[in-house]
Design goal:
382 residues, alpha/beta, Aspartate Aminotransferase, domain 2, Aspartate Aminotransferase, domain 1, 14 helices, globular, binds pyridoxal-5'-phosphate
């Protein structure tokens, strides 16, 4: 049989392509094992000598988790992937794999809060300093670089204001100074952005969000070059031990089956709701890179092939009224995570009294969601 090669995300997530050992099972079995044993002691010694690729102990390689990791690497177009117990475990491992005591990091200002805290509060105890930059302005980032800068940390787009970084420019800057680049790609998922193809070294995802897709799992992944990921395996992966459980890996694989399908539908729903909001007079700014009015829409089109369904808008309606508005919503539940089937709202009051309203648009009928937003605005006489 001639082997067919595919780049289709839909095809990649549909077939497990595992060997004939599993009775033709269409899904990968769950290896609910801590331990794997050997017939002879020589075989055990051989496996230990090649620990990165051997199945010995689940705080290392587990066949179910490996199946998920291989799938994720393929989806991102990367050589290797390692899964973790949470997105933050993946982010911490990736960041720590790039820096030594005394190094310097350049990080995008609007990155995920706990990732920011890792750099701003925690890494200082290893004398690792971080300069936070806007991310829209390459010159500012160039000026922030120091002789000891070893990491440029990106999140494009950011997940509250949805600002992009030019991936190729940042990758080029990092190469010039001998630093690594990491991007948090959770918003685009592996479906709508391929940062490795733009020269970024490592992609991290909070799998808790779109990859799980059902608000019932927590996990993370780091994807990148095999050489770097193998070193990360020996150090941050095995030493911190924040591994993904095989049961969870199996459920993430289930989520992956419909990831491309969900992403396309979520994109459509999100844009429909965003287009409705864009025309409302009480909204002073929309933050959704998929809208033509977004100041970085051209950059969006050049480095992404679609958009997630999490976005925000800004209004001068006072926070007090907006709380009443949010509480009036029937379909948008009040919550901070996203990526599941259900729509969500989360608001933040800015020092200048603007309210930033972040909406996650789920898989409900978008017209129902729009009607819900309308009736809630009517209830506060907006
Ligand atoms: C949720 C989130 C994370 C962290 O993921 P956990 O699985 O909760 O640890 C990282 N980045 C972004 C953009 C997120 O939304």
């Amino acid at each position: 049989m001639q082997e067919i090669q595919t780049n289709s995300k839909e095809t990649i997530v549909t077939h497990d392509m595992h060997d004939g050992r599993h009775y033709g099972a269409v899904t990968h079995p769950i290896y609910q094992n801590s331990l794997f044993t050997f017939e002879t002691h020589e075989e055990l010694e051989e496996a230990l000598a090649f620990e990165v690729s051997s199945i010995i102990y689940t705080r290392g390689n587990n066949p179910t988790v490996r199946a998920l990791e291989e799938r994720l690497a393929e989806l991102e177009g990367g050589e290797e992937a390692r899964c973790f117990a949470s997105g933050m475990a993946a982010i911490s491992a990736a960041v720590l794999s790039t820096v030594q005591a005394g190094d310097h990091i350049v990080c995008v200002d609007g990155c995920y809060g706990p990732a920011r805290r890792l750099m701003e509060e925690y890494l200082v105890k290893f004398q690792i300093d971080t300069t936070f930059v806007d991310g829209k302005d390459l010159l500012e980032a160039q000026n922030a670089v120091r002789p000891n800068t070893r990491l440029i940390y990106l999140e494009s787009p950011t997940s509250m204001l949805f600002e992009l970084q030019d991936l190729e420019q940042f990758a080029a800057l990092a190469k010039k100074i001998g630093a690594k680049t990491i991007i948090d790609g959770s918003w685009a998922s592996p479906c709508f952005q391929s940062p490795l193809s733009h020269g970024i070294d490592m992609v991290v995802h909070s799998m808790t969000k779109y990859i799980s897709g059902h608000s019932d799992l927590i996990g993370g992944v780091v994807i990148g070059a095999k050489q770097h990921l193998d070193q990360l395996f020996r150090q941050e992966f095995q030493l911190f031990g924040g591994i993904l459980h095989p049961q969870s890996a199996n459920l993430f694989m289930r989520g992956l089956r419909t990831l491309p399908l969900r992403m396309h539908k979520l994109q459509e729903n999100g844009l429909k709701v965003a287009h409705y909001l864009e025309n409302q007079s009480f909204i002073i700014k929309m933050n959704h890179p998929g809208l033509k009015s977004h100041p970085q829409h051209e950059l969006y089109r050049s480095q992404m092939s679609g958009s997630g369904s999490l976005f925000s808008f800004e209004t001068h309606i006072p926070m007090e009224s907006m709380r009443c508005w949010a509480n009036q919503l029937q379909y948008f539940r009040k919550g901070i995570s996203w990526g599941g089937f259900e729509s969500l709202v989360y608001m933040r009051n800015q020092p200048d009294n603007r309210v930033i309203v972040r909406l996650y648009v789920g898989l409900e009928e978008p017209d129902d969601l729009i009607n819900d937003l309308k009736q809630a605005f009517a209830s506060i006489e907006a």
